[in-house]
Amino acid sequence: MSIYVGNLSYTVTQDDLTKVFSDYGTVKRVQLPTDRETGRARGFGFVEMESSAAEDAAIEALDGAEWMGRVMKVNKARPREEKSTRSGGGNWGKNSGGYSRDY
């Protein structure tokens, strides 16, 4: 399981998050998603810790804590939702719209 960390400063680094969370246990991985176009941090991240007890301790201590001038939102990350494929919508390539050829 991983921890969602929201409302982060846009200047936060993976090392910054690792240092903060390591007070509660061993940090296995930190992810800071970035904007595709600008490359800038998006203001949230994910932290994976070695044990669920360490995750629970970090969530309890850090949710609502002020850090780097912002109040963090820290909770268990929800599983990523599958993006559905587009279906329906339009008749592209089908001979069923607009004009008919009645000769």
TrEMBL record:
<dbReference type="InterPro" id="IPR035979">
    <property type="entry name" value="RBD_domain_sf"/>
</dbReference>
<feature type="region of interest" description="Disordered">
    <location>
        <begin position="75"/>
        <end position="103"/>
    </location>
</feature>
<keyword id="KW-0694">RNA-binding</keyword>
<feature type="domain" description="RRM">
    <location>
        <begin position="1"/>
        <end position="79"/>
    </location>
</feature>
<dbReference type="Pfam" id="PF00076">
    <property type="entry name" value="RRM_1"/>
</dbReference>
<dbReference type="InterPro" id="IPR000504">
    <property type="entry name" value="RRM_dom"/>
</dbReference>
<protein>
    <submittedName>
        <fullName>RNA-binding protein</fullName>
    </submittedName>
</protein>
<dbReference type="InterPro" id="IPR012677">
    <property type="entry name" value="Nucleotide-bd_a/b_plait_sf"/>
</dbReference>
<dbReference type="InterPro" id="IPR052462">
    <property type="entry name" value="SLIRP/GR-RBP-like"/>
</dbReference>
<feature type="compositionally biased region" description="Gly residues">
    <location>
        <begin position="87"/>
        <end position="96"/>
    </location>
</feature>
<dbReference type="GO" id="GO:0003723">
    <property type="term" value="F:RNA binding"/>
</dbReference>
